Amino acid sequence: MLPAEIREEIRNTGIRCRPQVEIVHQDRANQWKLRAEESGGAVSLLGHYVGFVVADGSALAWLNRVHSLLPNGTHAVVVESELVRVEMFRYEHTYDLLITRHWLEGREGRRPDLRSELLYLGRRGTLATELWGRDAAFRGGAQPVFFTRSGEQSSPEPRWIEATVKVTEAVCCVGCKHCHLLEACGAGNQTAIEVPA
């Protein structure tokens, strides 16, 4: 989404956003999955954040939560067979939004291919409120407005609105040390871990 020079400048601010989705093999289950990290955060001037949701736009449970001494880094890891990545970059009041779907495709017994589909791309959106400063009380309830090249308003499909609001909050979360999109497993979804004696 961002040129190498901009990514380097972002890293110089201390924001460590990892939008990569990678293929991993689970040896015990003998299956291929996708692995990704919810990461990023903000400083007052800019923010960069990536999170993940289910294909219907609902929240996804993290595999493990990552606690770090340094802010604006990796917050959680997710491993699934399909992911929707929601990535946003903010420079002052200007925002870019990228929503993509990722899944595995291939034959049994062989390493599958990673497939991707663009779901939404919003460039140079605007949001007049200063969510990282004086208007922080509005975080979690605002999102940028995007326009097409011809000047018509553009927005993601309704199923992506909640994720867009959350990632907008994330790129305004100065010194971020928590997840905005991934969530803890529900009590009914947790599985016991066997510990050998």
Q: How many alpha or pi helices? A: 2
Head-to-tail CA distance between termini: 48 Å
Shape: globular
> How would you state the average pLDDT, rounded?
89
For the sheet with most strands, the description reads: 8 strands, antiparallel
**Beta-strand residue percentage:** 35-45%
Question: Could you say how many structural domains there are in total?
Answer: 1
**Radius of gyration from the CA trace?**
17 Å
Which class do the helix and strand fractions yield?
mainly beta
In which range does the helix fraction lie? under 10%
Based on DSSP secondary structure assignment, what is the total number of beta strands?
Answer: 10
Contiguous low-pLDDT stretches (5 residues minimum) are none
State the order of secondary-structure elements, H for helix, E for strand.
HEEEEEEEEEEH
Structure notes:
The chain is mainly beta. It has one domain (4-170). The chain contains two helices and ten strands. It has helices at residues 4-12, 161-170, and strands spanning 21-26, 31-42, 46-53, 64-65, 74-80, 82-91, 94-105, 113-126, 146-147, 153-154. The strands form two sheets. Strands 1, 2, 3, 4, 5, 6, 7 and 8 form an eight-stranded antiparallel β-sheet that branches. A hairpin with a 5-residue loop joins strand 9 (146-147) and strand 10 (153-154). The longest helix is centred in the last third of the chain and has 10 residues, at 161-170. The chain is globular. The N and C termini lie far apart (48 Å). The model has no long low-confidence stretch (mean pLDDT 89).
